[in-house]
Amino acid sequence: MVVDREKLIQIISEKSIMERVHQIADDISNQYKSEVPILIGILNGSFIFASDLVRAMKIDCEIDFIKVSSYSGTKSKGTVHLKKDISADITDRHVIIVEDIIDSGLTIRFIRERLLDAQPKSVSIVTLLMKPELVEIDFDVNWVGFEIPPHYVVGYGLDYDQKFRNLRGIFRLGGK
Question: Does residue 103 carry a catalytic annotation?
Answer without folding.
Answer: yes
